[in-house]
Structure formats: C-alpha cells, structure tokens
Amino acid sequence: MHVVVVGLNHKTAPVQVREKLAFSEHSLPAALVELRKYPGVGGCVIISTCNRTEIYAAVDEEPAGVEAILDFLARRSGVERAELRGYLYNYGSYTAARHLFRVAAGLDSMVLGETQILGQVKQALAIAQEHQSTEKILNTLFRQALTVGKRARTETGIDQNSVSISYAAVELARQIFGTLEDRVVLIIGAGKMSELTALHLVSNGVSGVIVSNRSYERAVRLAEKFGGEAVRFSELFKYMLRADIVISCTAASHYVVRLAEMQQVMEQRGRRPLMIIDIAVPRDVDPAVGNLPGVKLYDVDALQHVIDRNLETRRKAALRAESIIEQELAGFMQWLGSLYAVPTITALKKLGEEIKQKELRRAFNRLGELTEHDRKVIGSLANSIVNQLLHMPVVRLKEYALTPQGQLYNEVLCHLFDLPTGAEDKPNMQAAQN
Q1: What is the pTM of this model?
Q2: Catalytic residue positions?
Q3: N or C: which end of the chain has fewer CB within 10 A?
Q4: For 352, what's the count of Cα atoms within 13 Å in the CB-facing half-sphere?
Q5: C-alpha 339 chain-centroid distance
Q6: CA pseudo-torsion sign 379, 382, 385, 388
Q7: Could you report the per-residue pLDDT of 70-87, keeping only the tens digit for each?
Q8: Would you give the DSSP letter of residue 201?
Q9: 185: which DSSP letter?
Q10: Phi, psi angles (nearest 5°) of residue 60
Q11: pLDDT tens for residues 182-227?
C-alpha cells in the first residue's frame, strides 16, 4: 500500500471552487463508503474545512490511486477533471506524511498556528474509523500527526497571540470603522466560529450583539453568553436594519442572504452603510449583494491581508515547529520502511533457505554414501554461500528503509527476487522505532 493525498486549499483555489468540493459532516460517511469502492483504494480519510478539502488514501499504486480520487472529486463536485487539476495538489508517501504533519501543526493554515485544525484532523480520523474506512498505515499516520500538532503547540507556543478567522473578521471591521464602540453587530449562525467572533467583538467594545440562527434556542444560548439579543431567523432582515456590521457563518449549503431581500434592506436604510463579512464556506451571502450601493462585502479570502499582520512571533515559532515535524517524520518513515522491509527480508531469507535445502538434497543424492562429517561440511558451505549472497541486499534494504525511498527499494527487491508482498506479520510502530 502507498499513502497519497489529493486536495486543495486556500492557496491553490478560490472560495468559489473550494465550496464546490467541501464535504459537510453529514455527507462524510457516504463519501468515505463511495471512495472505498474504487479499485485499489484500501482506506481513506477526508479532511474538509472552510479552507481545505484533502483526501488521504492508502492505495495499491500511486498514479492509479490519484486518478481514482480525482474521478471521485469530479463526480461529487460536478467540476470537470481538467479544471480540477489546475487547483489540486497530490503527494505520495514521504511528502504526503510531511504535508499532513504541517497541516496538523497549523503551518499550512491561512492563520499560521491556528488551533482549530488539530481538532478537525482528529475528527476526520474518528469519522473514518467509525465507518471502517481506514487501515493500519493511515491510522498510524494520523495518530502521529496528532502527536506532531500537540508537540508543536506545547513546545513552541505557535498558537499564542490570538489570530484566527474570527479575530481577523473583527480586525477588518476595526480597520473600516476605526472603533467598534457604539456599533451594533448582527451575527448569523450560532456555531463555534460565531461564538469566537462574538467574543472578539465584545472585547473590542461593541454596544450591541444580535444573534440569529435557524435554531432559535441556540441563538438564545449564544446571545445570553454575551448579553446580546436573540432574534428568530424569519426576522433576520428586519433586524438587519439596526446593524452596522453583519458577520455570517452558518452551515447552510445555499445562500441565506440573498440579493432581493438585501435590496429592500438597503432601500430602507437610506444612506447608512452596511459592512458584511461572510466567513462561511460554502458562502452564506450572494456575491451580487456586494454590488449594492452602501454595502461592503468581504468573504474569507478577503481576510488574508488582515491575517498576514502580527504574525512575526508565530513565524519564528514555525521554524521550531518544522524541526519537530522532521523529528516525527523520521520516526514515521522508519516505521513505514520497517513495515515493508521486515516481511521482505523474511521472505528473502525463506527463499534462500528453500533453494539451499533443495540443492543440498540434489547434491546428496548424486554423491551417494557420505559421512556425517562430509554432510556437515557441504551443508556449512551451502549455508555460507547463501548468507553471503543475501547479506548485502538485507543490509542495504534495512538502511534504505529509513529513507523516503525505502518503499521503492523494497518493491524493486521484491520484483527482482519474485517475492510475495503484503506479508501479514508486520511490526508495530514502537518496535520499529526501538
């Protein structure tokens, strides 16, 4: 089995493409089951967040595995394969593992060192395991990635000095208005991101927080935490008349803020401007709303220039985190190499023993009567020849097993000696690292 990852993120694809490839938590089980049915796919884990969709898979062959995942994504998203290729990246084995470790450590996030991604990686693994779509290599890879993420944060403090999507949204509002005092903010959605945004808003002195959500009870609970006001979703546009800032982050798969309703809102507001920050993926707000006079509309991609600020400390911590990643990656690759090398070495020695015994029987039959001493001398000679012939291939394979090319050399050796692959007796990770 080979490990591959195929995906896209905020660096390779705009939000209008990312939203087409996003998987809701509800749709993940069916997606995992569907992907497992593709020939050559032995296991898979899907990470889907507002800024990335990545599929990690254990496949029989890397090129065929990548093509299978590409076909799966094209069918699920409705985007042509040729168009998708321009946005996707794919890595195998060593590079795939390193990429996941950097993701878990927050080094590949829009917000350097953000903490939320570690929980998302953990949840992705849990969902895949619950629906039996993983196997030994993926389980070990993801457990190691979670260790990397925890070490990076504990030992470098990379997640300190709050910088997040929700923080960036509030920072953008401060840049536009100068101060948030006496400003009224309407928050659409009552999830974790909305709660974090409300926390930053209150700490920056907003005079009023209005929360609207399809579940009115959840809106009430969130509003109570910050001394705000909960309103029913059916009254959303009525209360938008009072707001200076609207921040939307729901899990809806369609626009919840549409052009027709917003035209009426802006007509009733007169000349009062309205700032709308859409931090949902898929987007909550129809992009056409941004063309209305008086409306300033920003999506998650527009937050990038805010996020780029105040990150110098995190960049220094990131350098230390990269060192942690290399340490953990060496351990994982050593385990992975041993996973393939040990069964191959066992099979090679077994082949040598079988050839030796066969030839000894043939020689003894031809030589006729031999003393016990003669048999021992001939047997020792045959044993010495086989051992010396196999010594260097075994030594070299053990050495290469600790490198990124270990799996390749293992496969070459298997093909050269016509050895079976996929042996059942595989070492556990702790044994391989001792």
Answers
A1: 0.63
A2: 50
A3: C
A4: 18
A5: 23
A6: negative
A7: 999 999 999 999 999 999
A8: H
A9: E
A10: -70, -45
A11: 899 999 999 888 888 888 888 888 889 999 999 999 999 999 988 8
